[in-house]
Amino acid sequence: MAGSTRMEYELPDLHQLLTMAKASFQKVPTLVEVPCPVNICGDIHGQYGDLMRIFASCGLPFKVRYLFLGDYVDRGRHPLEVIVLLLACKIQFPKFVFLLRGNHELFHINKI
């Protein structure tokens, strides 16, 4: 994803992704034990390029484990792309991708 290029999403596709992600999260207990080794990543803040660099450097999320500490959106140029990719990875690779909620995922912090 270069420069200001944005991905186009259809509303029904986003709805389906969110529905599947919700079902995936509801299957997971509140306290999750993440087996080692694990890559711990924090504060992506909509920086899709940074997320791609993390995957390129540390390995793809079906080969190595990731624990994301939240703050996926806000500030950066591609918050939708970041959250869509992370949710898709969580759905597809639930034993490799663990997502925690950061303060930027709270409604009162990130009002539209």
From TrEMBL:
State the InterPro entries in the record. Answer: Calcineurin-like_PHP, Metallo-depent_PP-like, PP1_catalytic_subunit, Ser/Thr-sp_prot-phosphatase
Signal peptide residue numbers: none
SUPFAM superfamilies documented for this protein: Metallo-dependent phosphatases (SSF56300)
Which positions fall inside the Serine/threonine specific protein phosphatases domain?
Answer: 100-105
SMART domains xref list? PP2Ac (SM00156)
Q: Which Pfam families match?
A: Metallophos (PF00149)
State the reactions this protein catalyses: O-phospho-L-threonyl-[protein] + H2O = L-threonyl-[protein] + phosphate; O-phospho-L-seryl-[protein] + H2O = L-seryl-[protein] + phosphate
The cofactor named in the record is:
Mn(2+)
Tell me one GO molecular function of this protein. protein serine/threonine phosphatase activity
Q: Which UniProt keywords are present, listed alphabetically? A: Hydrolase, Manganese, Metal-binding, Protein phosphatase
**GO cellular component terms, A-Z:** cytoplasm; nucleus
Top enzyme class, one word, equals: hydrolase
Task: Give the E.C. number(s).
Answer: 3.1.3.16
Stated family: Belongs to the PPP phosphatase family.
This protein is called what? Serine/threonine-protein phosphatase
Which species is listed as the source? Wuchereria bancrofti
